[in-house]
Amino acid sequence: MPDPNAGPAVADDLLARVAEGRVSDPHAVLGQHGFDLPGEAGPHTVIRARRPLADSVEAVLDDGRHVRLHHLGHGIWAGSGDFGPTGYRLLARYADGGEWLSDDPYRFAPTIGELDLHLIQEGRHEELWNALGAHHREHWGLGGQVSGTAFTVWAPRARAVRVVGDFNRWDGQGHAMRSMGGSGVWELFVPGLEPGATYKFELLTRRGDWIMKADPMARQAEVSPATASVVSESHHEWADAEWMSRRATTNLHERPMSIYELHLGSWRPGRGYRDVADELIEYVQWLGYTHVEFMPLAEHPFGGSWGYQVTGYYAATSRFGTPDDLRYLIDRLHQADIGVIMDWVPGHFPKDDWALARFDGEALYEHPDPRRGEQKDWGTYVFDYGNPRVRNFLVANALFWLEEFHVDGLRVDAVASMLYLDYSRNEGEWAPNIHGGREHLEAIGFLQEATATAYKRSPGIVMIAEESTSWPGVTGPTSTGGLGFGYKWNMGWMHDTLQYMAKDPMYRAHHHHDLTFSFLYAFSEHFILPISHDEVVHGKGSLVRKMPGDHWQQLANTRAYLAYMWAHPGKQLLFMGQEFGQLSEWSEERGLDWWILGQPSHHQLAEFVGALNRTYRDLPSLWQLDDDSDGFEWVEGGAAAENVIAFLRYDRERTPLLCIVNFAGMPHEGFRLGLPAAGRWTEVLNSDAVEYGGSGVGNLGAVEATDVPWAGRPASATFTLPPLGAVWFRYTP
């Protein structure tokens, strides 16, 4: 018979499922509930709680009264009285004499609101990280504010979800979450749970299996190889207001941009986010770069993936410290006037069974059809870009890094793999789109939404595509069907020019088109010229080792190539180590060969990169009209036999800068070029200067052009071109 003091009866099978945390709405049974008592007026409330193994349980009300709870079965206790809704604590006594007073998660209202749920269901929550995940907060219970952690997770096909962690000895039966209806969101507030706690979600699949998953929205994770999520709270106080204000009004297309790409784990092995700040800032300032680009810093389980197989999209990797430690590093870089770009990987994710893969027991984040949902090259899953909730997860993630970490740009990895349904697939391994084509329409829509939303919410940032095909309009506006990126990596330029540079100078005449072809399309997109990590691994050798000749010639080739690269229309990116001529190819398992900087010729190469960057920044002709054909003019593009190219760059005031590169192994004396005007042309950069390790061949500081027409131009001058060297000249009327 039911105990009359325990309130309305509850079916035994329901009690059993509640006790095991196998229900979708545990709050419907547990917690406090009003009820009518026949024949009696006034409020009546029943309190039910799960306290297995207890000898007795009482509810201690906020007014000091104690309500005795009676055991209903399966560890569920209940007691009722003529009190209205109130705050309370649970006092449980055990056979060993132990006595525990604790709060009850099931007395609290949901911590997520109807608007949030609506936006999540529609796939339109631009601040998704503020709605889902684990959030330490003050929650208003009936008795006042209570500190604790609110957990929310999207798992639409789960039959039940529990929170497990170090705080409940990884037994989630007492922390079952409630379903928030058609949104697919589950919620639970755990009072008293503080930052630093580790946790996961335990999900009951439709097949009846329990699976344990890290939080997709976790702000922090355990240090790999541990895989739990960590309740995290930021206390960082930003000091980069001046930078952020300036960023919001800056058009990067009309500003200098040279990027130092680095893998944080192998730049200075053993250094964390905070430890590396001073040295990185000093080094980047010495080299004169405007930006650093970090290879992915989102949490990833396998270091050998370099961060490109992400499991924690909202968590800065704990390998190098806490999220606030990363905020500190970015803040310091901004205060030093250095921009920060981060690699972002929405193209795929690994199959680790504790992460996103088959999150609620079935394909959720990934497309269910393996012809669209798997990337066999990398052994990973591919996101279901057509699912609005999945797309929302990714778009909000881009905004998260831009807004919460003040990142100035995202370089999107492997865009080509998203654009084409048949990317790296054989016939029969891919399914065409609704029009029968190979274009991945849903992924295109996602990229357009991501770029448009990022630029709308964070003016002054930059979205960069690593796109290796001739897809039209990568940097075109979304309003005209473009993908909306600010820049695209110019992979064609990289491939052609490195192929040219690998040739012995005596054979380069036959490959002159590799040097000049990129100028035909240089203004078809907004380009970044990348010599990235991908070009110095897997047997490709370092940049210096790609060059022919003896050691002096390799370094001279490198200096000339970099000067040509910096003068070419587009922004520049160089991977760490190449600035001082690292000889061995890069490996994430060890640090850079910093000892080489102690060798005079290599230190001189680094000094040259510094001079290159500073000269570049001082000359608007090299960047003010970077994306406009009016900012470029050929002077000599056909001197294949001499291995020479020469061109002019202009700023908005039509101030010309003459760039000449001699890729021959011998100097050219008296090399005449037609020029737009007579006057003094001052040598502002010479890659063959003695201070950079060169032979010192040059033009004694300046060349006087006269009114002698040449090659269709009204003036001309003769130049001394150093061997394997580049010279830049600024015009003075």
Proportion of residues in extended strands: 25-35%
Q: Rough shape?
A: elongated
**Overall average pLDDT:** 96
Strand order of the largest sheet: 17-18-21-24-25-26-27-28
CA gyration radius, whole angstroms: 32 Å
Overview of the structural elements:
The chain has 733 residues and is an alpha+beta fold. The chain has 14 helices and 36 strands. An eight-stranded parallel β-barrel has the order 17-18-21-24-25-26-27-28, surrounded by four helices. Strand 13 (198-204) and strand 14 form a beta hairpin. The model has no long low-confidence stretch (mean pLDDT 96).
Short overview:
By secondary structure, the chain is of the alpha+beta class. It has an 8-stranded parallel β-barrel with strand order 17-18-21-24-25-26-27-28, surrounded by 4 helices.
Per-chain topology:
Blueprint: H1 12-19, E1 31-34, E2 45-50, E3 56-61, E4 66-73, E5 76-81, E6 88-93, E7 99-102, H2 114-122, E8 133-141, E9 144-154, E10 160-165, E11 178-179, E12 185-191, E13 198-204, E14 210-213, E15 220-221, E16 229-230, H3 241-248, E17 258-262, H4 264-267, H5 273-287, E18 291-294, E19 298-299, E20 312-316, H6 323-335, E21 339-344, H7 370-373, E22 374-375, E23 380-381, H8 388-404, E24 409-412, H9 415-419, H10 441-457, E25 462-465, E26 487-489, H11 491-501, H12 512-516, E27 527-531, H13 551-567, E28 571-575, H14 600-618, E29 632-639, E30 644-650, E31 656-662, E32 668-675, E33 679-686, E34 702-705, E35 715-721, E36 725-732
Parallel strand pairs: 17-18, 17-28, 18-21, 21-24, 24-25, 25-26, 26-27, 27-28
Antiparallel strand pairs: 1-2, 2-5, 3-4, 3-6, 4-5, 6-7, 8-9, 9-12, 10-13, 11-12, 13-14, 13-16, 15-16, 19-20, 22-23, 29-30, 30-31, 31-36, 32-35, 33-34, 33-36
